[in-house]
Design goal:
The protein has about 240 residues and is mainly alpha-helical. It has one domain. About 80% of the residues lie in helices and about 0% in strands. It has ten helices and no strands. α4 packs across α6. It is globular and about 60 Å long. The protein starts with a helix and ends with a helix. This is DedA family protein. One of its GO terms (cellular component) is plasma membrane. Its main location: membrane. It is found in: Cell membrane.
């Protein structure tokens, strides 16, 4: 059993290294980073981490080129998701039809009006969150020009973050590229979950603060009722 696991691990590692050195590395990187802007199951981060590990290990393409192509792919995917939302609405994508997807859309709808910039930038680091925000931005008529600019900043930040994770993982466990990829992907997922929790917590606090600020001036109402009771003619 142990021998089989070791052999399988070696085969996967060999396939990984072959893909990193392949002429298809950058096309695959662009396609996956574009695709996960509107379809979360596509492993865009995984491919970025994989190529960053390869660059750090001395193989494949340079990490600067990985960063450039990943950012471009992410930006193009965001624009496609925005266009889908504008044309078909938020129910166009299966990923947004389930309970989690509908909650994400509801949150994005409430938040885009109040703090569009921070929402677009923060959601890029949350797989389902970025899809919900991208599609909802198009569906609710969020400014296309503003979305394009914010998405460009978010895409560069996300690509840099993913490349950094892969580079650090390779520096830590550089003797095994496959293990470095696994460590980098798991670390990226955990950081994404953390970002999601922080964003939702801040949004909940702001909503509670906004609700608390909307109060009925009860003393003034009671004072008016008392005045009317004292002056029946005024009430008529």
């Amino acid at each position: 059993m142990v021998a089989w696991v070791v052999e399988a691990w070696g085969q996967v590692e060999a396939w990984l290294l072959a893909l990193v050195d392949s002429v298809w590395a950058l096309p695959v990187l662009f396609a996956t980073t574009a695709g996960d802007g509107f379809f979360p199951p596509i492993p865009g981060e995984t491919v970025i981490v994989m190529l960053a590990v390869g660059a750090q290990s001395g193989g494949g393409v340079a990490w600067g080129l990985v960063l450039l192509v990943a950012a471009l792919g992410a930006w193009c995917g965001d624009q496609l998701a925005y266009a889908l939302g504008r044309a078909l609405g938020t129910r166009a994508l299966p990923a947004l039809r389930g309970p989690r997807g509908r909650r994400a859309v509801a949150w994005a709808t409430r938040s885009l009006d109040r703090r569009g910039a921070s929402v677009v930038l923060g959601a890029r680091f949350v797989p389902v969150g970025r899809t919900a925000v991208n599609v909802t931005a198009g569906a609710v008529g969020f400014s296309r020009r503003r979305f394009m600019a914010l998405s460009a900043v978010a895409s560069v930040a996300w690509a840099t973050y993913s490349v950094l994770i892969g580079t650090l993982a390779a520096a830590w466990v550089g003797d095994s590229p496959l293990l470095a990829v696994v460590v980098g992907v798991v670390g990226g997922i955990l950081l994404g979950v953390l970002v999601d929790a922080v964003v939702r917590l801040r949004a909940a606090r702001r909503e509670r603060a906004a609700a608390a600020a909307v109060v009925v001036p009860a003393p003034a109402v009671r004072g008016t009722e008392a005045a009317l009771a004292a002056c029946p003619d005024a009430a008529r």
